[in-house]
Automatic annotation (TrEMBL):
Taxonomy, superkingdom: Bacteria
Stored Pfam families: DUF2459 (PF09601)
InterPro entries with a match to the protein in the record: CHP02117 (IPR011727)
Protein name per Swiss-Prot or TrEMBL: TIGR02117 family protein
Organism of this sequence: Mesorhizobium qingshengii
Length: 221
């Protein structure tokens, strides 16, 4: 038992060190030249374990993601100011709409290996600043690159992105089949970090947790 305790203690120390270094070492190491063409204000939304990216809505964005309206997500109504995108593990995402519904099997899949889904929701005006909201200005070219990254995350069938049937948190959101495998090392927050780097922002080298991603974003942007 003592050897097991020492091993678990060492494992926790290594994990904590990896998370800390992952947040403090910037990626990319050197900042890219800032774009001066236009400004788009994007938001990163977080809770204790997950992050999403909120994209401001205009006619071009609605057209780009027209399949959302086709599936019933109300991106066209005047009250909608943002489309909110998140990527995550299928079991945990679909079977844990609230903390009270936490189950062992989705947690085990999240810690090992699972297929992935995209979650899409809409939001009205989002007040800033808030502890769970971080806003960033990016140029038009980088904004388009971010949209490319998000669109490429959707798995596609003959008719386009594939809706996960009978899976939603409310009547305003949907889940879609996604590209990529989810695990404890490559999870929802590393997807968010990769998307933000596509947008020209700097993150930590490895950000498995919202707290580490938030810290690196504050340090390097």
């Amino acid at each position: 038992m003592k050897k097991l305790g020492r091993f678990l203690g060492l494992l926790l120390i290594v994990a904590a060190l990896a998370v800390t270094l992952g947040a403090l070492v910037p990626r990319p190491l050197w900042p890219a030249a800032a774009s001066i063409e236009g400004k788009r204000h994007i938001l990163v939304l977080k809770n204790p374990i997950h992050t999403d990216i909120a994209i401001p809505v205009d006619d071009a964005v609605r057209q780009r993601f027209h399949f959302l309206a086709d599936a019933g997500i109300p991106v066209g109504i005047p009250e909608v100011r943002y489309i909110v995108f998140g990527w995550g593990g299928r079991a945990f995402y679909l079977e844990t709409p609230t903390w009270s519904q936490l189950k062992a099997v989705p947690v085990m899949k999240a810690l090992t290996l699972d297929t992935s889904v995209m979650h899409v929701d809409v939001a009205g005006d989002i007040v800033e600043p808030r502890p769970d909201v971080a806003g960033f200005d990016i140029g038009e070219e980088r904004f388009m690159a971010l949209l490319d990254f998000i669109e490429a995350s959707f798995q596609r069938g003959p008719a386009g992105p594939i809706v996960v049937e009978n899976a939603a948190y409310s009547r305003f959101d949907h889940f879609y089949e996604a590209n990529g495998r989810f695990n404890a090392l490559v999870g929802c927050n590393t997807w968010t970090a990769a998307a933000l780097r596509t947008a020209g922002l700097r993150t930590g080298w490895w950000n498995p947790l919202p707290a580490s991603l938030s810290l690196s974003m504050r340090l390097y942007n």
